[in-house]
Amino acid sequence: VQLVEAGGDLVQAGGSLRLSCAASGTTFCITAMNWYRQVSGKARESIAGITTDGRTYYTEPSIKGRFTVSRDDATNTIFLQMNNLQPEDTAVYYCNAEGGYSVCANDYWGQGTEVTVSS
Q: In this prediction, what percent of the chain has a pLDDT beyond 70?
């Protein structure tokens, strides 16, 4: 599975961005796709995800009500709509896919896309 993120940018506080993550290759492996983010000098953390049947979950309390994860099955793409961005949202955002079968890897990662929020 190959994952390609896009959409990162520099934005002012209060602004919005929409990140995308397109999956290709052995996409049958994927059972869920997630968004992580990593602040410089800190560990990568899970923030949200969506299963193949469309169930969403948000694992980072600070994003609830501001970020929305969605998917487009026709293009094997997931999105992260980020509204009311704050400087503390500045990070590199990574897409992750969970592999669910023995012939698949456990995890796949994209290269990351950088989001910078200025105050």
A: 100
Q: Encoding tokens for residue 51?
A: 């299963």
Q: CB 78: neighbour CB atoms within 10 A?
A: 28
Q: How far apart are CA 44 and CA 13, in angstroms?
A: 22
Whether residue 89 contacts residue 115, with contact meaning beta carbons closer than 8 Å, is answered with yes
pLDDT classification of 67: cutoffs 50, 70, 90: very high
32 pairs with which residues across the strands? 51, 98
Annotate 42-86 with DSSP letters as a single string.
Answer: S--EEEEEEETT--EEE--GGGTTTEEEEEETTTTEEEEEE-S--
Distance between start and end Cα atoms, the chain? 37
The maximal CA–CA distance of the chain, rounded, in angstroms, is 46
DSSP 89: G
Is residue 82 a contact partner of residue 115, using CB atoms and an 8 Å limit? yes
